[in-house]
Amino acid sequence: MTTGVAPTESAVRAALGKVKDPEIGKPITDIGMVKSVTINDDASVDVGIYLTTSGCPLRTEITQRVEKAVADVAGVGAVRVELDVMDDEQRTELRKKLRGDKAEPVIPFAQPGSLTRVYAVASGKGGVGKSSVTVNLATALAERGLTVGVLDADIYGHSVPRMLGSDAKPTQVERMIMPPMNHGVRFISIGQFTDGNTPVTWRGPMLHRALQQFLADVYWGDLDVLLLDLPPGTGDVAISIAQLIPGAEILVVTTPQQAAAEVAERAGAIALQTRQKILGVVENMSWLELPDGTRMEPFGSGGGEKVAERLTRAVGAPVELLGQVPLETALREGGDAGVPVVLSAPDSPAGSALRAIAAKLAVRKRGLAGMSLGLDTVRHS
Ligand SMILES: Nc1ncnc2c1ncn2[C@@H]1O[C@H](COP(=O)(O)OP(=O)(O)OP(=O)(O)O)[C@@H](O)[C@H]1O
């Protein structure tokens, strides 16, 4: 924006202070990424930027953000961005800045005072739409302005990256893993660390260690919500999560058809055993809307409500049916195309239902999650 007024370095630096690194989510001026600012006589500006790694997949985006911010400063002519890469010392500095000086990474969500709500999405069996619900809720929450992460811990299915429409790999800065982001959602999947579609057959301690790493070594930033896509059924992963993040709450996804008693019993048993709170139930594939507007219920009806009722009795605290999501081609297509239905067809019946569930989750108070379990009473009754 050339105005005849010569641009000042402080104005350019102030503009750079508004540019955030897409992965780290902090201003580039705060994390040592601005190497130099040179204002030339012809009002053009040269900006030197340090990338965290040479293979940084976001170099183009960072360059564009910097160019745009600087070009908007009064008096600035052409903008040139020159990229450089941090050396080891600078990366260590960055890690310390983000992580503090701790030798061993800790799980931020397990620390007292953590403000991140952690929702572990579970189902009694596979194929009920657990990953679809996770990804859509995450995207809808991000749309509402929340900072959201998804950890795909479904070691059998890991479909989160596909459903979020990104095959980007995480980058690594020192021992920190930077999660890629799409549709405003940061995500990490076991699938990003395995070759192709090789199924992962980790069990027990190895799996526990992998989860611990994903929770501690990944730089998630200050999340409002972290959603965990658990493998179907109950087992090692649910127990590990409860140990690693005691405040995580369980969100149960079921279909109307599922044997309510069975699902509720298992989820309830896990919650009691791990002393976790059950956030609520989402019924998926509830009905199919026919062209004439009538509803067909291929999987029967009432499953979600029954699961919620039984869970309420099992844990002795109210468990709500948070919503019912109809069967819809747009939802499946959105998952396949990597654009969740809450974005591709937000006003479709499934898109609206999922957004309404996200709205319920969004208004829950930060930091209170899992604090009052009320389960001790149940254990003794
Ligand atoms: N409401 C719906 N309408 C149409 N298709 C759906 C709906 N919910 C899920 N699907 C489709 O059903 C298939 C299974 O869904 P998804 O992968 O989300 O289930 P899952 O419970 O996570 O399965 P797994 O745990 O085995 O990975 C996907 O192809 C998905 O697009």
From TrEMBL:
Coiled coil: none annotated. GO terms for molecular function: 4 iron, 4 sulfur cluster binding; ATP binding; ATP hydrolysis activity; ATP-dependent FeS chaperone activity; metal ion binding. It holds the Pfam family FeS_assembly_P. InterPro entries: FSCA_dom_sf, MIP18-like, Mrp-like_CS, Mrp/NBP35_ATP-bd, NUBPL-like, P-loop_NTPase, YlxH/NBP35. ATP binds at G124, K125, G126, G127, V128, G129, K130, S131. Keywords: ATP-binding, Hydrolase, Iron, Iron-sulfur, Metal-binding, Nucleotide-binding. Residues 10-81 form the MIP18 family-like domain. One of its GO terms (biological process) is iron-sulfur cluster assembly. Homodimer. Binds and transfers iron-sulfur (Fe-S) clusters to target apoproteins. Can hydrolyze ATP. In the N-terminal section; belongs to the MIP18 family. This is Iron-sulfur cluster carrier protein. It comes from Gordonia alkanivorans CGMCC 6845. The lineage of its organism: Bacteria, Bacillati, Actinomycetota, Actinomycetes, Mycobacteriales.
